[in-house]
Amino acid sequence: MDYDVKDLSLADAGKDRIEWAFQTMDVLKSIQEDFEENKPLKGKTIGACLHVTTETANLVITLKKGGADVYLCASNPLSTQDDVAAALVKHYDIPVFAIKGEDRDTYYKHLNAVLDKKPNITMDDGADLVSLLHSERKELIKNIIGSTEETTTGVIRLKSMEKNGVLAFPVIAVNDANTKHMFDNRYGTGQSTIDGILRATNRLIAGSVFVVCGYGWCGKGLASRAKGMGANVIVTETDALRALEAVMDGFRVMPIKEAAKIGDFFCTVTGDIHVIRKEHFELMKDGTIVANSGHFDVEIDVKGLRGIAVSQRDIRPFVREYKLKNGRRIYLLAEGRLVNLSAAEGHPSSVMDMSFANQALSAKYLVEHGSELEKKVYKVPDELDAMIASLKLKSLGVEHDELTEEQKEYLSSWTIGT
């Protein structure tokens, strides 16, 4: 079997952790049972570019049990859990091309290794496989039924491709499913980002000034969790409605140039480029900690930071100190990459349960309906979204009301008034 992982001797530990995660992935568990029985993906090849974590492992195992040939590479050079990669290869016979800390050349070699398998469906976390297919591997597009996309950042890229008329096949925006972005982005990113910052720094958040750059679903989750840890939270935003929402949620809102003067912690979650720049670093206090939890390492201008630093050193794992000419020190976490997956383990399995249920069911949907779809970005079908929510509630032992026939009639009528 063709694969490239760090060390197969890590496989047993990885298998234990995969099984641990699966204990709280009841929705995916029910889908896996159905897939194993009915083989809806039989004969199809799936190329997945995702964070190689215990939760992702359970997704690709589910896809394989559904009859697919699955090949996995990392969607970020620092997010791979090497023991999980080894376990997938050794214990589950799933080819993995991922090594934590791999350089850019190795990263793209691994992307191409997955595409070399001529997938019929791609699963992306940031749209790198899709981008590569459209730029350097166009000859493989004829094999593609469709793709799925996990992240806000990736969906932005794909909608741009659709708008410009270059998207060559349909894509299901898993990120836009309610059972993904309302829970994974908010509760998953909120908790795991705080976890990554704490593991990297071991600094006290209570009483600090914590600046959240961006108030989308990820920013809302992070701001809420930082507030829960006792921080004084400031939000920076470019969107007036989101800025207003942050104010109504009880947070201070101000421009980044003002927040830069008073923040102790900064974390970007915008999906955009150079949110924190050279002019902001020059305003920061001595000892400021800067992190990113957006998908790509572009939100913090790391090159600009290097340019104004007189010295730099790694002072702790995932913590690099940059000393500026004014004598102040800025501490950058995880090279400006996703701090929650670089310095910690990413989202808890119970929330990824819904996200990966969306992925698995979207793959099945593409097999069944891909030929009917246009070259556009689609939502996860509402009925799948609702089914996942119901399955999650059931797994939690929670019951909820259903509409009576009278209520259904009332809601569908325009003649019933006061």
TrEMBL record:
Give the UniProt record's GO annotations in the biological process aspect.
L-homocysteine biosynthetic process; one-carbon metabolic process; S-adenosylmethionine cycle
The name under which this protein is listed is Adenosylhomocysteinase
For activity, the cofactor(s) needed are: NAD(+)
Q: Which GO terms describe its molecular function?
A: adenosylhomocysteinase activity
Q: Classify the main location.
A: cytoplasm
Q: Which InterPro entries match?
A: Adenosylhomocyst_ase-like_sf (IPR042172), Adenosylhomocysteinase-like (IPR000043), Ado_hCys_hydrolase_NAD-bd (IPR015878), NAD(P)-bd_dom_sf (IPR036291), S-Ado-L-homoCys_hydrolase_CS (IPR020082)
Give the family from UniProt: Belongs to the adenosylhomocysteinase family.
Q: Which domain of life is it from?
A: Bacteria
Q: In which pathway does it act?
A: Amino-acid biosynthesis; L-homocysteine biosynthesis; L-homocysteine from S-adenosyl-L-homocysteine: step 1/1
Taxonomic source organism: Hippea maritima (strain ATCC 700847 / DSM 10411 / MH2)
Keyword tags: Cytoplasm, Hydrolase, NAD, One-carbon metabolism
| Record: residues binding NAD(+) | 151-153, 185, 214-221, 237, 293-295, 340, 347
Reactions it catalyzes: S-adenosyl-L-homocysteine + H2O = L-homocysteine + adenosine
Give the CC-aspect GO terms.
cytosol
Q: Which NCBIfam families match?
A: ahcY, PRK05476.2-3
Q: What is its EC number?
A: 3.13.2.1
Q: Which gene encodes it?
A: ahcY
